[in-house]
Design goal:
The structure is a homodimer. By secondary structure, chain A is of the alpha+beta class. Chain A contains 9 helices and 14 strands. Chain A folds into 3 domains: 58 residues, Orthogonal Bundle (Arc Repressor Mutant, subunit A); 204 residues, BirA Bifunctional Protein, domain 2 (2-Layer Sandwich); 42 residues, SH3 type barrels, CATH 2.30.30.100. In chain A, strands 3-4-5-9-8-7-6 form a 7-stranded mixed sheet, with helices on both faces. In chain A, strands 13-12-11-10-14 form a 5-stranded antiparallel sheet, with no helix packed on it. In chain A, strands 1-2 form a two-stranded antiparallel ribbon. In chain A, strand 11 and strand 12 form a beta hairpin. In chain A, helix 6 crosses helix 9.
């Protein structure tokens, strides 16, 4: 109900809405409306109340919450369920538990803090309280095992586009799953799945974004940055989350209808590594050469110094400085 | 302890072993030895007791049990943990739960009955009480997402080899996961995994074998058979389980060391479909042609009537009757 009250306050777009209007729209008493307004104020929302005019939303809370996110998503959104948590070990683990309990496609797990955030290849992901976006998307697409890594690329496109529209800064994708601003990492994407050789049963796309950090631990200070550092001012996390979910929605629907060939050019236009000399570290060893692009499956194509073409399915790439 | 007593009885190989020997080997009292012998008899084992000679195992129980399986596995076997159940919905689901609880590579889930046994593509698998082998192997190999389907082929080789040595009947593999005797299905293999694009985290290989059924529901009577029907006599399930686990162990170790190229010829020698005209039904549609074989990845190669070569990653194949 807090989400519904918030949605009405937001929809009136800086104007006043009367308590009577809210109570009739939501079929609840004026006293209940007052209780929800009070609860929202306690959450950090600034809501003006003027006699004979009603309530006006002056500023939203910088605190993340499920009602904040829910109040901003359309009713027929791909992402229908928001599972919000103040502190979790890892949103990926929560998502896995929800799947085991029968959670459907379109569930989003969001946390204000992760105590054991995970990155690719078993690495840690630093996820401090109040500062970032730590979320996991649950999806159950009808795609094959080989197509699953394409969802990582799709998510990277959604995030770069959302960063551009919300923060007005440009970001670049480093194959397969990192998003950089000014050459430093602001976002990592971790796609995990349950599958059999015939089909994907569920996918969890973890998205970790450094949003409002001003400092980083010394171990990552040289390689990590935040959107706020790059932009020079704080970013409203819930706005960015909504924009990512909206971008993801249309890209995902186009992908399911038209295949990865629709996503490929959108990915390439934001990719930092294409056409450059790269070093790829894979399970099979180390390769150096020019990253020619990705193929129609999303696999990275590397041409080595002898002109031999290699397909990189997984691995780490680095772009050596000249 | 029952498993240890059983192991001693088995190792003496049809001879008598004294109660004193058992009690000293297992560091327990003679009274306890007697209690274990009594418990084993209640489980259906026929154990002769003769004064001044001791105990002799005359015949084993036809009832499956964890101590029966455990007493037959070597101490340094790949499969170290046996999780035995009288009745489960699905051994795959139990295996998934065990993984969530931290079960390690080499755990085997075995059930005497499955009430909701699962096959490929969401199909049911008929798994009646006392009659079959319904088991799931948990493994955590360091392989890539694309290599995972190879484990289905490896498991099929292990099962055909075990059937041959225990039952002295030959069986054939229909790509990718069915094992046929006299053209009818005796075994299905369902490989499920948790993975990210970089690596497999865990694999559950489900193996369902029709062992001692004499009748099948009318819906599958035309396409299913059992080893007992083909052989003309009952098969000891625990012996077949042990043989499958033993075959699996050496094939798996060779596979991890040498790759799929080691498994490929062993698979091909038992494959029914190679060189024959097949119909493949895939997510992309229906294809007819000659099955030329599998490639080094385990992917089925089909040459259609126009000579065009197709790679079949997943799907159903049928072998039309001439």
């Amino acid at each position: 109900m807090k989400a519904k009250v918030l949605k009405l306050l937001r929809e009136i777009n800086g104007q006043y809405i009367s308590g009577e209007k809210i109570s009739s729209e939501l079929s609840c008493s004026r006293t209940m409306v007052w209780k929800y307004i009070k609860a929202l104020r306690e959450d950090g929302y600034v809501i003006e109340a003027v006699s004979n005019k009603g309530y006006k939303l002056v500023s939203i809370s910088n605190h993340l919450s499920d009602h904040e996110i829910r109040s901003r998503l359309g009713n027929d959104h791909l992402f229908k369920e928001i599972s919000y948590h103040e502190e979790v070990e890892s949103t990926q683990n929560i998502a896995q538990k929800l799947i085991n309990q029968g959670a459907g496609s379109g569930t989003v797990v969001i946390a204000n803090e992760q105590t054991s955030g995970r990155g690719r290849l078993g690495r840690d992901w630093f996820s401090p309280k109040d500062k970032g976006i730590w979320m996991s998307l649950i999806l159950k697409p009808e795609i094959t095992l080989r197509e699953a890594p394409q969802l990582t690329l799709l998510a990277a496109v959604a995030v770069t586009r959302a960063i551009s529209s919300v923060c007005s800064i440009s970001s670049e994708i480093k194959w397969p799953n990192d998003i950089l601003v000014d050459g430093k990492k602001v976002c990592g994407i971790l796609t995990e799945m349950q599958a059999d050789p015939d089909r994907i049963k569920s996918v969890i796309i973890g998205i970790g974004i450094n949003v409002n950090q001003t400092d980083f631990p010394s171990s990552i200070a040289n390689i990590a940055t935040s959107l706020a550092k790059a932009r020079g001012e704080q970013v409203e996390r819930s706005e960015l989350i909504i924009q990512i979910l909206n971008e993801f929605q249309w890209l995902y629907e186009a992908y399911l209808a038209k295949g990865f060939s629709f996503i490929k050019p959108l990915w390439e236009v934001n990719a930092i590594s294409i056409g450059k000399k790269i070093v790829a570290t894979t399970a099979q060893g180390r390769l150096t050469g020019i990253a020619e692009g990705i193929n129609d499956e999303g696999v990275l194509i590397l041409r080595d110094d002898n002109g031999k073409v290699h397909h990189i399915y997984s691995g780490d790439i680095t772009i050596p400085k000249d």
